[in-house]
Amino acid sequence: MHQFKKTIIQLYRVLRGKSPYIKTSVKLKHQWMGGQNGGFYVAPEYINSESIVYSFGIGQDISFDTALIQKFNCKVYGFDPTPKSIEWVKEKGDIPRFNFTPIGISNKNGELSFFLPQNEHHVSGSLVDNAVTSWDNAIKVPVKDLKTIVGELGHKCIDVLKMDIEGAEYEVIPDILKLGIEIKQILIEFHHRLYPNGNQKTRDVIKLLKQYDYHAFATSEILEEVSFIKMNHSC
Fold it and tell me: Strand order in 110-117's β-sheet?
């Protein structure tokens, strides 16, 4: 019954132009980790206590991160330059096996403009101006590319890379793929809803991921959270 409801919701969104049609291309056992709004599907058979997880875009929801820690006892590295997120994580105190760094991911290193949300009650900003950010309300935040982050942390392989970065994924993912860093699973929240040509932007990134041997194995009910796996990884 749940799968039927999910299919109907996805069909409605595609027909209304709210989301592109996203077809999974490999069949894997998958499990939803985290809350309804902050979760993603993972392929659990490829995660264990030695796994390294990078979680870009924390906001004020670490349900995904803590669910992985509780189930697999793995290490999760969280990243977010958003002022409200930084303060929220500080208030949480020490969380076993969760490491937080207040930076954003980009295709460059340094400081970039970070556009805060138009609605002051919202949390998430973005490195790219979009339909819900304010061009007139921007701050400078530190950013690093994935090659630099991996080098500083001393990791050679990332088991899971989760990305919820409010539209900046369209610039960052091509750079990540070109770096050639070994990543087993890439989980992305696509923000096509924030752009007039957003559906095509998502299609283009999915096509590029497939060229690098990343195949979709699960999608959320609203076709925004999509999980990919690299079938021929070397670590």
Answer: 104-105, 133-144, 110-117
1 — pLDDT class (breaks 50, 70, 90): low
> Quick one: how many helices (H) and strands (E) in the chain?
6, 12
Q: Which residues contact 141 (CB under 8 A, 6 or more apart)?
A: 81, 103, 104, 111, 112, 114, 127
**Regarding beta strands 98-101 and 75-79, do their DSSP bridges make them parallel or antiparallel, or are they unpaired?**
parallel
* Distance from C-alpha of 189 to C-alpha of 193, rounded to nearest angstrom: 11
CA 163 to chain centre: 1
Split at pLDDT 50, 70, 90, the class of 130 is confident
Q: Is residue 59 domain-resident?
A: yes
- For residue 137, being part of any structural domain is answered with no
The answer to whether position 129 is within a domain reads: no
Cβ 47 vs Cβ 159: under 8 Å? yes
Contact 133, 115 (CB under 8 A): yes
From first CA to last CA, the distance across the chain in angstroms is 38
Residue 108: closest CA among 149, 159, 138, 139: 149
At 177, the amino acid letter reads: L
128 domain residue, yes or no: no
42 versus 180: the higher-pLDDT residue is 42
Q: How confident is the model at residue 212 (pLDDT cuts 50, 70, 90)?
A: very high
Number of structural domains (the chain) is 1
